[in-house]
Amino acid sequence: MVGPKAIINLDRLIHNYKLVKQEVGNKKIMAFVKANAYGHGAVPVAKALESVGADWFGVFTPEEAIELRKGGVTGNIMVFCRFHPEFLEKANKWDLTLNISSEDDLNDLITFHGDMNSSPRFHVKIDTGMTRLGLPIGSVSSFFNLLKKNSQLNYEGIYSHFATADEGDLDYAKFQLEQFKGVLDTADKMGLSFQHVHLSNSGSVLNLPESYFTMVRVGLLLYGAFPSDEVPRDLPIEPVMEFTAPVVNLRKVKAGTLVSYGGVWSAPNDTVIGVVQVGFADGFPRSWYEEGCISLKGERYKIAGRVCMDQLMVDFFNANVKRGDEVLLFGKNKIDSIPVEEIAECIGSTAYVLLTAIGGRTERIFSGLE
Ligand SMILES: Cc1ncc(COP(=O)(O)O)c(C=O)c1O
Hints:
alpha/beta, TIM Barrel, Lyase, Ornithine Decarboxylase, Chain A, domain 1, 11 helices
């Protein structure tokens, strides 16, 4: 097929997983594979991780979880979106772990247990400062009281989420950590204990080991990118995705020729303009054109003019290029790399945004595992 390709190097994924495993010692890892494994392909990624011992997976919706089950993933799968009563039967049927973040959610579980005499597994979400989902600290005791009265329910975990763990200033993360410890203390005093306790994400795996508890939840590091430029970057992770596209057209133009929409780019000299078949509809970051480049045979060439929906143009100047050559858009091939973090920093975005955007007509090719 002619068009963009995301080559997913599963051997690099496993390399990254093993590095994170070394970093966190005997703690469990919940591999975050939501949003199609951050654009990498959820089922092949989860199965590759399962083959090296990963036994917890984080997704956002029940549909994402069921896709994993249908694809043959047998490990624990936790669904992180706000609980809805319609998840209960799905959770029982597909053995999913639910996210319970309010007394209303707990009451729905109690009613379901009354009707069906069964309870899906769930983890209790505490809001320690993200102000998204979760029990506010002030309502924890009343929630725990209700939980204690309903010990038939299958509560197996408790967790919270950092808002700033990937920042250089960790004061707020440390505040959240203390809040969370306070909640664990309250639970302990009330005689409640949880098998799985988790708070850490990629940022805090790198810079806050005291937040590991029994399990860490890791996404971005597994895919070989760092969450920000403020975290220590000494873990030798490898980019899993190699995003490429073919040169489909070449043409000589005179100096001053305008290229692409708006005519905002003009050839600085007589040159060769190539058309590469990838555009913003495939997830290529449109705003990367101003400073942006691609790599051909280990050399970088400037993107010429605005990125279009399906194509972009490149100033190949005196390159040895022919129709059909594949260019590297980001990631790493055998001779060059364009880190997705470099693009993100340049255009004021993040690796999360750029990776999860990859889609459209992009073909995913899985390599690196038998
Ligand atoms: C609740 C929760 N935990 C963990 C993660 C994983 O974060 P990261 O990719 O930074 O490791 C996410 C990602 O968005 C999340 O929402």
